[in-house]
Design goal:
The protein is of the alpha+beta class and about 180 residues long. It contains six helices and seven strands, in the order ββαβββαααααββ. A hairpin with a 2-residue loop joins strand 3 and strand 4.
Length: about 180
């Protein structure tokens, strides 16, 4: 059995120090140790992208990265995008544009899309499709996913529609 190593990692703006086995995958650490279950395990081979998180602001597939490699770094998960109980604009556009069906790929798609938009705030449709390459969806045909990323880039999210983090239900401001 491999000896454990102490790591310190910031995940979603909270610092954690833990002893981990050197072979523990980052996705396992996030899900099993920290309870960040929005980061999904799909293929364990980097083919599907369901496990995509940000490491120091850059998209990585956490199923083929060891937790010890995140030592001293900042990780953002899908849970870390929401602020003050409200979904991030990109999360809201995915909801508003119906950019999900079964939802399994959605966390990875959103994390990859956030990286894409950070690098290119106004991508073309083809640039969005190219930027999402490596993140697989088996249900939607990608059209609504591309539309959601375009809406986020264009800022065309309906201003009166908000979604509470965790509820998945739209709330309309000013309507009782």
């Amino acid at each position: 059995m491999a000896s454990s190593k102490t790591i310190t990692v910031e995940v979603d703006d909270v610092s954690y120090t833990d002893d981990v086995e050197p072979r523990l995958l980052l996705v396992q650490y996030l899900r099993e140790r920290l309870g960040k279950t929005g980061t999904l395990i799909g293929c364990d081979t980097t083919n599907c992208g369901a496990c995509t998180v940000h490491l120091d602001g850059v998209s990585v597939k956490s199923c083929t990265m060891f937790a010890v490699q995140a030592d001293g770094h900042r990780v953002t998960t899908i849970e870390g995008l929401a602020r003050d109980g409200k979904l991030a604009p990109l999360q809201r556009t995915f909801h508003e544009c119906h950019a999900l069906q079964c939802g399994f790929c959605t966390p990875g798609m959103i994390m990859q899309s956030a990286s894409l938009l950070a690098e290119n705030p106004h991508p073309s449709e083809q640039e969005i499709r190219d930027g999402l390459e490596g993140n697989l969806c088996r249900c939607t045909g990608y059209q609504n996913i591309v539309a959601a990323v375009q809406a986020a880039a264009e800022g065309t999210l309906s201003p009166e529609a908000t979604v509470s983090a965790g509820s998945g239900e739209p709330e309309t401001a000013g309507v009782s």
